[in-house]
Design a protein that fits this description.
This protein is of the alpha+beta class and 92 residues long. Helix 1 crosses helix 2. It has one domain. A three-stranded antiparallel sheet has the order 2-3-4. Strands 1-5 form a two-stranded antiparallel ribbon.
Length: 92
């Protein structure tokens, strides 16, 4: 996965923020997925920025974390969401 790639939310995925968390549903597979407050913030940034690099750049200013640790954790979550069909990652 490259940081210049873009994240898209497929039409078959619906999501709802509940408090500080977000619930995602893949309507094709019936898979539900819950995001904690940090995952929810990533989801919000990706919806606005879409580009992984831009999302990471914004998040690193918001959290007290080393950039390489943030990148590792974000990419792990992106891969998991992609594997569940909740996002699509495409080259920009």
């Amino acid at each position: 996965m490259k940081l210049n790639e873009t994240v898209k939310i497929p039409k078959h995925v619906v999501f709802q923020k509940v408090g500080h968390e977000t619930v995602l549903l893949n309507m094709e597979s019936g898979v539900y997925y819950g995001l904690n407050s940090t995952g929810t913030r990533l989801w919000e940034v990706l919806r606005d920025k879409k580009n992984l690099r831009a999302a990471l750049d914004e998040l690193v200013t918001e959290y007290d974390v080393q950039p390489q640790d943030l990148q590792r954790d974000v990419l792990r979550l992106i891969r998991e969401l992609e594997a569940k069909g909740l996002i699509e990652v495409v080259e920009s």
